[in-house]
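Pilot study result, target chain (127 residues):
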Amino acid sequence: MTVRGLYEMSCALIFETPDDDEDLKAGFPHILNQILSEAVDYENQFRRLDGEKLLRVEDIPLYVSADSNEMLPFHEKLCRAALPLGVKAGLLQEDGNKQAESAIEYNKYISALNDLTPAVFIDVDSE
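Predicted structure:
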């Protein structure tokens, strides 16, 4: 998924038309950068399962625009089902009247990360 795609999906979750609210659009990259750093350990479980190199927070680009067509370095399942909830929570937090709803959405985001992330089993030698 691209940065722009996640922005558009997140706007739909809060019933905003993309590009209509410049404050929300300007805040999006900051929210995205935060939730990606929070979700990196969950992404790494997918990478372990697939035998891929693990991602460090330092490896994740710092995004500066909601209009970026860069691909997010995260598994598509996380991009479609968890990250939009994290962005939604951040966007709602910007609205002082929606603090409770923001907290609920953040909890949904964390639950989605936990529910979607696969377990990775390893062989352990016991002596």
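One observation from the pilot: The chain is about 60% helix and 0% strand. A full batch analysis is planned for the follow-on phase.
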